[in-house]
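Appendix B. One record, verbatim.
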Amino acid sequence: MGELTSALRRVELDLDDAPQWLAEHGFTDGLPVIAPEPRLVDAALASCGRDPAEVLGVIPPQFASVTVEKVAVCAVMAGCPPKAMRVVLACIEALLAPPFRVASVQATTSPATPFFVVSGPACDAAGMASGTGSLGPGAGTNVAIGRVARLVMSTIGGGRVGDGDPSSLGMPAKLSACCAERIDASPWPSLATRRGFAIGQTAVSVFPITGMWQISEPSTAVGDVVHQILHGMVSPGQCSQPRLPQSGEQLLVLTPPIAHILATRFPDIADLERALFETVRIPMAWIPPYKREATRARLDELSIDWHDDLVPIAERPDAYVVVVTGGDAGVQSMGMSTLTLSRSASALVDA
């Protein structure tokens, strides 16, 4: 017999029975979890040095308090090692930050899920990977860290499939979506630095992604790569609002070789954001007729010149967020759309 600490209460049972008990009581994400024995939870808590009773916030739809101890329980269940706890806590703090509006992510019928980008030296200490396959599977502790957030959302927040989570289709990324930014191979300042954190600090940024698609270009000619990346971000199928431009963000995840090619044309990342804003546009004819009047009004309101009858997908250049991660082989990058009711948020990782 052994004691098991769930995300909400303590129970006594044989550890051999723990997997079935956890599954039957909704303490899983559909995959097997590690039984959160007190010794394992205590090890996770000891590694972060924070008060177990500290409340990080409340999470809907149950509006339950999220404490450091509850997050440690979820971290154990997710298979996250103690060394990653400081990063995990920053992820949850970003998740619960007001701009992210986690209630919208929990309650939507779209396949929205948090995607975490961790930038800074604490990535190495946490065992995160930023090279080949950084989005998973494997990839150091990346997948386990992202999985903690899903368990927090479902077991503490009550966002279980068909109950607190009404997503019509869902998607595999709802299990875990997390990467470390490959700062050493990026031609631009890190995302953390661009968001106001000091050089040498580690920060987590979370995005409410709703979809992702590959952008690939075999040519290494600068003009070809620039053309393919900019036009590859055109994805009209994700434009779900009753008008354009979308109010959310658009995430461009670049592998280092592609980033360096783009940097020869755009040494300042703000210039790349501007190019994306000017290029990632769709003809007004592609917009359903019932949306066109509202779209014209919104373009006038924002004083956007929709040249050549082309409508921008995003409202402004800084709605495009560029991140560098992944391996040196291949020519793949990725576009990601975000939930329009939510915004990305960032949080500092404790030193």
